[in-house]
Design goal:
The complex is a heterodimer of chains A (141) and B (492). With 141 residues, chain A is of the alpha+beta class. Chain A is 20% helix and 32% strand. Classes of the chains: A alpha+beta (141), B alpha/beta (492). Chain A: Belongs to the RuBisCO small chain family.
Chain lengths: 141, 492
């Protein structure tokens, strides 16, 4: 299974050069780039853990790549994504978000159906990994 | 550009006893032609394309449009004198010949804000397009554009979700969204219908969509469709880990039925519902209120619009419909593809997209935008491009339509030789490859075919899509094109 959240998840894993080019694109557009990681790939898990603050004053993608290498060393067994924040009035949200690191094995998500009134079904999506406590879900790289 | 100059004292408005003597009088003498009028910041301004009958003076025809869309009737009435009628009379203040269109004139007409009920598209349109389009002295009439003052814009709530919040809810940023309309649009049972939804979403689309005429027919009851579609959506979400959606069309014969369907969609956990333009402006505003109250994205299918938007001589331009819909409050609106099978000149379509997505629209005659328009922080509408588009056009679509758009590949997904999921994957891979290349600074418009070929090397379904549809284009002349070439500027 492959979690396909984020732009570029349908492409082969991006190389560091490709990631750097995307980061530089964001920086040149005036966006603040941030790294976030998680071991809970639920589609509505909005708040991944932040690896520091968005890098508001960084002009060179190299600094982000250094942080990414550092983040991978610590959390290489988890999902890591790059998020780019645009503070322009009328937007003030993300402009780009893509996964740059994923667990070696992705067991996927379970769909639980609870039969209720009539033919209605209440659906619950559960990542198999989250059945273990945080930090122990994908083993250690 | 020539402006018809108003130094004709014979047409100056009359006053007092002369003005209100019983009988008929030229509209331009009744105060509907005020060439030295300077519109105030709070006036609503309408630009009409007027085609007078042979022998009818264009200024008189334009003054008549002002009159018939505001206070006038065919004869003088003394009861005007009980009112502040100078204020309530719409004022035509400028008439220009249309470039390269003999017999047609652009008439600028200003309306006082007090003529309109706050927050009601029905009221606005009852005035502006209510009576006047059947007026006999005119051969034809078209509402080309409107300037909506901020004071009026602020009486509307606008799109319930907007582009930014829609993206936040879907957790999808930096690329166009992908959708497909389920086909065939009539005849599938609920179970078969859900199969199409599941395959398309699983393959990589973000959305699937009911078609405009899928409501509740003998072959598929609406509840059946909703239940099977939500099974498909939830299965695809679990399969991919992504948020998915399907536009459940709640269009029905009565508001009560629509509310019932919308409530059921919410109960089942749908992120989005859909309505058709044919339900009417008041119904659209009601469904917008409902969507706002229930955290629902509201998709509008512009069913029926071409009956009055397509011909340049008569009707209402789609740019005006788009403005009304941004006020009325829908989140998605079909706005053309340029390259697909349906009407859409590139410059005119650009004008529509700007109206949907920008906070401020500057006057751009070359795109058919005649007025500066401030949107006063009303949410943005996500334009939807649907009809005869395929993966091989991805570079053109990204270039022409930008990033904040839903690209809907119906046939281009479901008609894929490898199946629906393969069709969806082809579109998603083509899209992501193109965005990647654009962000890398490549000349993706010219290198588009090579970028797609390279992406197809790791994606067999994309290879098949490119081979199947490589020669499909729809190159026909547009009927609705701008009247001004890019270098033209407005004459004053």
């Amino acid at each position: 299974m492959r979690v396909t959240q984020g732009t570029f998840s349908y492409l082969p894993e991006l190389t560091d050069d490709q990631i750097r080019a995307q980061v530089q694109y964001c920086i040149d557009k005036g966006y603040a780039v941030n790294l976030e990681f998680t071991d809970d790939p639920h589609p509505r898990n909005t708040y991944w853990e932040m690896w520091g603050l968005p890098m508001f004053d960084t002009r060179d993608a190299a600094a982000v790549m250094t942080e990414l290498a550092e983040c991978r060393r610590t959390y290489g067994d988890r999902y890591i994504r790059i998020s780019a924040f645009d503070s322009t009035h009328g937007w003030e949200s993300l402009r780009l978000s893509f996964i740059v690191n994923r667990p070696a094995d992705e067991p996927g998500l379970k769909l639980v159906r609870q039969e209720t009134g009539g033919r209605n079904i209440r659906y619950t999506t559960v990542p198999y990994a989250t059945e273990k406590p945080e930090g122990q879900r994908y083993g250690v790289v | 550009m020539d402006t018809i100059t108003p130094v004709d004292t014979a047409t100056a408005p009359m006053s007092g006893k002369d003005r209100y003597r019983a009988g008929t009088m030229e509209y331009k003498k009744m105060g509907y032609w005020v060439p030295d009028y300077v519109p105030s910041d709070t006036d609503i301004i309408a630009l009409f394309r007027v085609t007078p009958q042979d022998g009818v003076d264009p200024v008189e025809a334009s003054a008549a449009v002002a009159g018939e869309s505001s206070t006038a009737t065919w004869t003088v009435v003394w009861t005007d004198r009980l009112t502040a009628c100078d204020k309530y009379r719409a004022k035509c203040y400028r008439v220009d010949p249309v470039p390269n269109a003999p017999g047609q004139y652009f008439a600028y007409i200003a309306y006082d804000l007090d003529l309109f009920e706050p927050g009601s598209i029905a009221n606005l349109t009852a005035s502006i397009i209510g009576n006047v389009f059947g007026f006999k002295p005119l051969k034809a009439l078209r509402l080309e554009d409107m300037r909506l003052p901020v004071a009026y814009v602020k009486t509307f709530k606008g799109p319930p979700t907007g582009i930014v919040v829609e993206r936040e809810r879907l957790d999808k940023f930096g690329r166009p969204l992908l959708g497909a309309t389920v086909k065939p649009k009539l005849g599938l049972s609920g179970r078969n219908y859900g199969r199409v939804v599941y395959e398309a979403l699983k393959g990589g689309l973000d959305f699937t969509k009911d078609d405009e005429n899928i409501n509740s027919q003998p072959f598929m009851h609406w509840r059946d469709r909703f239940l099977y579609c939500m099974e498909a959506v939830n299965r695809a979400q679990a399969y991919s880990g992504e948020v998915k959606g399907t536009y459940l069309n709640v269009t029905a014969g009565t508001m009560e039925d629509m509310y019932e369907r919308a409530e059921f969609a919410k109960e089942l956990g749908s992120t989005i519902i859909m309505i058709d333009l044919v339900i009417g402006y008041t119904a659209i505003q009601s469904m917008s209120n409902w969507a706002r109250k229930n955290d629902m994205i509201l998709h509008l299918h512009r069913a029926g619009h071409s009956t009055y938007t397509r011909q340049k001589s008569h009707g209402v331009s789609f740019r005006v419909i788009a403005k009304w819909m941004r006020l009325a409050g829908v989140d998605h609106i079909h706005a053309g593809t340029v390259v697909g099978k349906l009407e859409g000149d590139p410059a005119t379509t650009k004008g529509y997209y700007d109206i949907c997505r920008e906070e401020f629209n500057p006057t751009q005659l070359e795109n058919g935008v005649f007025f500066d328009q401030h949107w006063a922080s009303l949410n943005k509408m996500m334009p939807v491009a649907s009809g005869g588009i395929h993966a091989g056009q991805m570079h053109q679509l990204l270039h022409l339509l930008g990033e904040d758009v839903v690209l809907q590949f119906g046939g281009g997904t479901i008609g894929h030789p490898g199946g629906i999921a393969a069709g969806a994957t082809a579109n998603r891979v083509a899209l992501e490859a193109m965005v990647l290349a654009r962000n890398e600074g490549r000349d993706y418009v010219n290198e588009g075919p090579e970028i797609l070929d390279a992406a197809a090397r790791h994606c067999q379904p994309l290879r098949q899509a490119l081979d199947t549809w490589k020669d499909v284009t729809f190159n026909y002349a547009s009927t609705d094109t701008p009247d001004f070439v890019p270098t033209a500027t407005a004459a004053e």
